Structure formats: C-alpha cells, structure tokens
Amino acid sequence: MPRYEVTIEKDACDGIFACLTRDPRFVEGEDGLATIDPSADPIYDCEGEVTDTAERVVAKFDDDRIDEAKQAAAACPTDAIIVEEVGK
Ligand code: SF4
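^ thats the input. predicted complex w/ iron/sulfur cluster below
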C-alpha cells in the first residue's frame, strides 16, 4: 500500500468545499476552512494521523485511497491541497 501525505495550506483555502464531494475525509473545520477527519468517511473505516495547525493540515495515510485525495486536490480551485507519496 502506498503511504502518502495530504496537506491543506490554510492560507490558500477559501472554504469553497469542492474537496468534500471528492473525498469524504475532507470536512469543514471549526475555522470554516477545510480539515481532514479520517473517521468522517461513512463507508470506509479509515485510519490516519492528522496534524491541524494555524498554517496547515497534514494527514498521513497508509491505504489505497490516494486517488480520491488526488481528485480532491484536482477539484480545489485554489490549489490548496497537496498530495504526495512518501515511500512504499
Ligand atoms: S476545495 Fe480547496 S479551497 Fe475549497 S475547502 Fe477544499 S481545500 Fe479549501
């Protein structure tokens, strides 16, 4: 399984929430911007480590759902989402 990291740069996030419709792990945070909650997915039991600071959200996953995260990144009109593989 690929291990990958999903980053949301909060400076770039406009709260448009196109990402939520592509990957249900993206949710609206208390600050009105996107954040990531691995357990928010109603279908898959997903695990991940999430760090949410004032500047950015970084989530690490070890599953086969990188394509969904990439679709969320592609749907983001402000390019606030970065998806990177971080090793095999
Ligand atoms: S689509 Fe992009 S700008 Fe919109 S909420 Fe998601 S990360 Fe933020």
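The radius of gyration is 12 Å.
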